[in-house]
Amino acid sequence: MAEEVKLLGRRLSPFSTRVRIALNLKEVAYEFVTVEIFGQKSEILLESNPVYKKIPVLIHHGKPICESMIILQYIDDFWARNPSILPSHPYDRAIARFWVTYLDNNLLITIWGMLMAAGKEAAKEAAGRAAEILQTLEEAFKQCSQGKDFFGGDAIGYLDIALGSFLGPLKAGEKLSNVEILDEKKVPLLVGWAERFSKQDAVKEVLADAEEYIEMIRSMNDGVPTV
C-alpha cells in the first residue's frame, strides 16, 4: 500500500532516481516526499538518517533504509517478484557491484566537475575524463550484457539503474562543456543502451532531462538551489 512506503528525496538527485526506478520496476506504490537538503534540513530526513543526513531514504512500515544501492538490494529482496534487479548468479552480482562502485567513485565526481567548472577549459578537461570513463564502461557493457540490450541482459538491472541515473547530469555536462561524451563513434554500445534505457516505462517519468539540471546549476550559482 502507498502509505506503507515513503521515499525521501528530490527529483534532481540521481540517487533518488535510482530508488524510484527500482520501485517502479517492482510496481510498488509509494509516496515521494521532497525534503529540504540545503540550509536547514527537513526534520523527517534528520530523524530518518541521523548518521549521514542525506537522501534518499526509503521508509517501509516506519523503518528507514539509507544509501541508494543498499535500498535497491532491499527492494529486490523484499519484493522478490520479477523482474529481478540484481543478477541471480553470485559472480554476476559481484561484477555488477564492482562496476557500481567504480561509477560512484569516478563518474559522479567527474560529471560534477563538468557541471560546476569555472570556465570552458576546466569543463573540457572534466569532459575528457568523463569520456575516458565511458570508454571503460563500454568494455564493461560488452562483458556484462553478453550481446543483449542491457547490462542486466534482456531487462534493466542493478548496474543499468546505477549508470542510468547519471544520464541527465551527463547530458547537461555535454551541453555546458560543448563536448560530446556519449559519442556514437567512440562508445556506440553505450549510446544505444542509453536510448533504450531512457524509453523504459519504469524510467521515463522519473528521469530528469539535461535542461532541468542546467537550470539547477544556474540556480545554485545564483544562490537559490532547486535540486
From TrEMBL:
Checking CDD domains in the record gives: GST_C_Tau (cd03185), GST_N_Tau (cd03058)
* An annotated GO cellular component: cytoplasm
Domain of life, source organism:
Eukaryota
| GO MF, one example | glutathione transferase activity
The family database entries (Pfam families) matched by this protein are listed as: GST_C, GST_N
- Residue ranges annotated for the GST N-terminal domain, each copy included: 3-83
Annotated GO biological process: glutathione metabolic process; toxin catabolic process
Catalysed transformations (reactions): RX + glutathione = an S-substituted glutathione + a halide anion + H(+)
PROSITE patterns with a match to the protein in the record: GST_CTER, GST_NTER
Give every GST C-terminal domain span.
89-220
Which keywords describe this protein according to UniProt?
Transferase
Q: What class of enzyme is it?
A: transferase
> What is this enzyme's EC?
2.5.1.18
The UniProt similarity line reads: Belongs to the GST superfamily. Tau family.
Name the record gives this protein: glutathione transferase
Q: Which organism is it from?
A: Musa acuminata subsp. malaccensis
